[in-house]
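Repro:
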Amino acid sequence: MMKQLLAVCSAVCVCVLTATASFASGTIKIGGLFAVTGPASFLGEPEKKTLEMLVKETNSKGGINGMKLEAVIYDTAGDATKAVQLATKLIKDDKVSVIIGPSTTGESMAVIPVVEKEKIPLISCAAGIKITDPVKHWVFKTPANDHVAAEKILNYMTKQKQKTIALLTVTDGFGSSGREQLKALAKQKGFSIVADEVYSPKDTDMTAQLTKIRGIKPDAIICWGTNPGPAVITKNVKQLGIKIPLYMSHGVASKKYIELAGPDAAEGVMLPAGKLAIYDVLPKNDAQYKLLKDYDQSYKKAYGVEASTFGGYAYDAFLLVSSAITKSGASAEQIRNGIEQTQKLVSISGVFNMSPKDHNGLDLSAFEMVRVVKGDWSMIK
């Protein structure tokens, strides 16, 4: 009897040790939903490449807590219906523990009911405030909320004594959210909106709206959208000889915007941008400087081009996930809890301070006002 008992105990111990060893060398699946193709590919392509690069780098260093990472990434092409289908596939078929993305506000809003129902953490790479306000239990986002970017612009306009504003916003989720935030903040801060024009994401000429605005003569124009629309508007402003100061949203904070608009047309355009765009002129003691430099150099080495703010959103999401796994564990619930408890995490977009009441965790310090000067970004001091 004693021999049998010892044999059973020994077998149990072996099973426990084997299970532990298996878990220690197991795999954590991270889902990715990015608009790699389509109109929003300037967002999704660098996000996909950044996540792939970081997973490769992490695995080369032994993974996280001895566990290997696997990125399962799908191209949504910027389509909300496709994003929902692929989110379901990631959860049901691929068994991911967390999803990074989608790239756009519209896709993110469409996917939220899926992840909330299935209890899988989602870290959106889109800026719309409604993604995390009101707070959803399983949903986070890495770009600073659009009201933060809007406030950054309006604070600068106050210093310039610009009081009348013409709005020109795209009719998609990002543009609609930005328009709503701009109008609310403008009212609070004593600005007058003298023109409120919109355009479709597929429009290729906005001279009609700009001609109206030119006749009204506002102190400034604020365009809210993502390329190609803002680049077209910038060209149209140049073509019409409009000299009114032109502000863009953070949705065009990459060199692609300058390339699409043309450096001559973009000269002097102002916008709030994450520090990655201008890290080379930051003080060397800035908390983000080293990380920004390392990311840019790693991305250039891997892909031959400089890193973009948009790829930085995926970088931030990966840091939040890896930090949560390291501190809390690798299950979906542990990752969610770990992200929500994140404090003082220095990242590409800023320093994240999450809480049960704030699933974005960034403030005005996430942005610097920049101006296009001779085909490049220049920090406005």
